[in-house]
Amino acid sequence: MKIGVLIKQVPGGDSPLRVSSDHSWIDETSVNFETNESDSYALEEGLQLREKKGEGEVVVISMGPDGRTQKIIKEALSKGANRCIHIVEDNARETDPLQTAIIFAKALKNERFDLILSGLQSLDLGMGQTGVILGELLGMSIATLVMATELTNESIRVKRELESGWFQWVTLPLPACLSIQSGLNQPRYPSLKGIMGAKKKEIKPLSKSELFDGNEHQSITRVYSIQKAKQTEMISGDVNQQISRLVDVMKTEIKVL
Amino acid sequence: MDILIVLENKSGSIHRMSLEALAAGQKLASELNLSLSILAMGKNGGDLANDVSNFKADEILLLENPILDNYSSDGYSFAFTSILGQEKPKYLFMGHTYMVRDFLPRVSAKLQIPFISDVIQFNVDNDAPVFTKQVFNAKLAADIVSNSHGTTLVSFQSAAYQSDQVESGSAEIRTISIDMDASVIKTQSEEPFKEEAGGIDLTNAEIIVSIGRGIGKEENLSIVNTLVDALGAELGSSRPIVDSGWLEPSRQIGSSGQNVAPKMYLALGISGAIQHVVGMKGSKNIVAVNKDPEAPIFEIADYGIVGDILEIIPKLSEAIQAAKN
Questions:
Q1: B1, B38, B157, B263, B264 from B87: Cα distances, Å
Q2: Which positions ≥6 away from A54 have C-beta within 8 Å?
Q3: Which residue of chain B has the CA closest to A120?
Q4: Does the ipTM exceed 0.85?
Q5: Is B130 an 8 Å CB contact of chain A?
Q6: CATH level 2 (architecture), domain A2-211
Q7: Each residue's pLDDT tens digit, A51-109
Q8: B201 within domain boundaries
Q9: Are residues B46 and B138 in the same domain?
Q10: A57 vs chain B: nearest CA distance in angstroms?
Q11: To bridge A166 with a disulfide, which of A139, A162, B25, B305 should be the other Cys (CB 3.0-4.6 Å)?
């Protein structure tokens, strides 16, 4: 069983987010990068599937500049991934998921994974497409919003989240590409042994420029802060005054009473 | 054909977000003088086509094919690839629903065309639309343009445009067909199910009273229920309440729960994390009560009260009862 897991570096929750002076992206100096949330769940699911199967390898794949990518790769190797493919680029501006997936497809086509797992969407651009497009480009069967997995020899049965509290089980022939919803498992922490062992594991560097075909299908023209669109009426006074005004609002302005 | 709107078939009726995409499409059509077509498909697609025949459009397309009666990612991605090849629209607009997230990236891959997803608005610049999307967990916005020579796929976030802004008109129905057989579907889908009985659909509620961490403990739910009854509302919550097991999962609103847009959304003790906000920011009126004046929920509220919800809820219930009598 050969499992690939796509992981991405995104700004941590408490990192300062400032628009760069040319409004092309954010100012990344002093941003603390960490593994995208749903990608951590995808990695954990990959590790658990390998453990249940009792054989196989988990290969993590990430694209980005050296320092920050190495940080999340080493974390994944410490948690138990077997090896890693690092698509190296100097300037991370993945604004086109189709282009990103084409690069990944070229990098991975000879790996012949039985399974590729990715997080549902990234916290930075949030297109939610790269993993799905990659599966299509590699001719794999595909499911998204996966909340549980059951592996058999030739296929994988997955529980998909639908809208409004509905779910559905779908069985996919292998090889399959799954996008993983946060919360389906409990991502582990690296053990001390894992951290020591990670140092000996293979990190294979590939150059993005050699994989990039030059086509950008969509482009970001400007990044900016969102202006608050709404005027909020803050209802002041003591509690009785606040409630009296709120009931008045419900009656005369919102008209629900 | 310039703009194609595809109606998502939700068990025989039109998904609300498809009408929002139609409102967006009509706006782009009028600003750039483009033609607009609406496509109905899936089980009882003819009913959906009739439902939109009084809306402003150049034509309505109807695709009836038993293989597409039930949704599958394989079937839909194949069918859309064929349809776009035949009809060659410049833009395909749909709602950013779970179904669209599931199959539309595959169409982007098959046709090598861009998919600009989860868009909140567009503006026309130099005779072309510039699409705006929230990025970095909705803390910033990005303007995005398509470089496509073929179709550009676009999905709109819930409530980006308003379904009640759809313009009326009339259009003829044209039946289309595509060449496909059942062998394109490689996966086996089981019947959709709800996690437990009594799951509730909040998406059509007029009034939602929603509680968050500020409620403190499970015993305090009883005062909320009194308020819910007084208002004739439905009860919703943020994720922590469901994770604590105090309410069933179907009450959860937000990115991993339901997406709602009631006439009034009363947020009680909810801080306003982005995962919650995406599921309710389309509400017509948002009233927030929170003890923290810095809570982000006040950024999107129409009316705000800084105060203790445990004190305010019972008094509000009484005052509403009194106002109704």
A1: 7, 12, 25, 38, 41
A2: none
A3: B101
A4: yes
A5: yes
A6: 3-Layer(aba) Sandwich (3.40)
A7: 999 999 999 999 999 999 999 999 999 999 999 999 999 877 778 999 999 999 999 99
A8: no
A9: yes
A10: 25
A11: A162
